[in-house]
Amino acid sequence: MNAPLIPPLPAGARKPRVVILGAGMSGLLMAIQLKRAGIEDFSIYEKREEVGGTWRENRYPGLACDVPAHYYTYSFEPNPEWHHRFARGPEIQNYMRHIADKYDLRRHIVFSEEAADARFDGRRWQVTMKSGREDSGEFLVSACGFLHHPREPEIPGLGRFAGKRFHSARWDMSVDLKGKRIGLIGTGSTGAQIVSAVSKLPCQLNVFQRTPQWVFPLPDREYPLAERELLKRFPIIARTAYKFFDQSFDRVLAQAMIQPGWQRRMVEALCQWNLDRVKDPLLRRQLTPDYQPMCKRIIMSWDFYPAMQRPSVKLVVDRIERVEEQGIRTSDGQLHPLDVLVLATGFNTHEYMRPLELTNAKGLTLSQAWNERGPHAYYSLAIPDFPNFFLLGGPHSPLANGSVIRYTEALVAYVMQCIGHYGQGRFNTLAPRQDATDAFYDGLRESMQGTVWVSGCQNWYIGKDGLPEVWPRRPREFNEALREPKLEAFELG
Ligand code: NA7
Question: Using alpha carbons only, what angle is made at residue 71 by residues 18 and 469, rounded to the nearest 5 degrees?
């Protein structure tokens, strides 16, 4: 279960220099594993001023991880201090800070530097930052995640709004919500968390819903001091909890997503039960989706429906026509007057490390390589014609509901094994073969049949070529497939 322990490179092995982009969960993990292997020659470039990735970017009220905390940890770093079953955002960021300190990673991190351009010269990646600063290494690892490009909706008049307006990932902490008329556009995971938190404040909340979402009723709970003390004394409890959630996600939730069966029926029944807690028949009808649960990333919330039934919350289902100075005008002609407008409209999830441009030794850019079909990668992490470049959490990793940390450990272990082969002199450059990548995609397309993601809904997984950028089998199978690199699937130079 634990992240594969990375053995130190044998004495005399070549040690490459590695450039990592991003000091979020995956960048820190990559750094830890490099150090475990005895490689100290690496730098992490982080565009902001602190570690934490998405947990540093987001500060909206109600921010929490919808994966249980004891599962949303590095497998080798259980945290007995979690205060809730679903850890709050600031708590997770503290955990990331603690990891950076404990593993002495800060001296490798260059903050407030964003990579703009990376060119492979045949042996090394030459990376140029926006500031003009340069660095290079034999390997380049993008650990930028996929939830960091806020998506502004294309709604006419957005710029004309006279009140305060911001995206959920750019929360304006200076705005006091008390007594205000707030408009919230979007009812995804973020919107649902904001509704649950803001509905408790003395303010008026107008929720603009374009598409209803299914909500899975997983109750939160606080871990009392006595329980946290117990976990400190007996680490096996946290390890057991990790194992339990890992098995449950793999065998039940992931299985429900990829194939019809009792798991899917059970998730559907629980979502329906949750929805039936909405007493008013009109409100319930308005909140009822017309597609299968999990086709869109399912929302995990015990509080969302009770919050929607609070008198201070109004659901608006009429199409947004335009934003005006005073508020939002809907298709029924009504103006909804607002003081604050929050855009919980998600992220451009297919951008990954861009706007960074990669160029290979033959002058081919990543934009050109991905132009026709959108983001494509061998097992989500390596791209034909782009040697010695790895992408953590790229297209077709198991990013639907589940712990991204869990599978990122498998990805990083794989990258470390490739670096190990480099250390042994088995290659100078390695990039996946096009035919191996095509075969991987043939398998993906075949496995996608029967998954909920192709059952008919708009979701942010779907890529340019219509193929959802998720892993259509159980996460365990992803980890198993990455157990060991098959060097015959790569062009070695
Ligand atoms: P999501 O899941 O992409 O949700 C975005 C929401 O915003 C969703 O309800 C959209 O409705 C709505 N939306 C987007 N554009 C518009 C416009 N133009 N008009 C009205 N409504 C709009 O983003 P989240 O931030 O909630 O979650 C992203 C991930 O972060 C989440 O899955 C977790 O992994 C953490 P739609 O359904 O498209 O009709």
Answer: 60
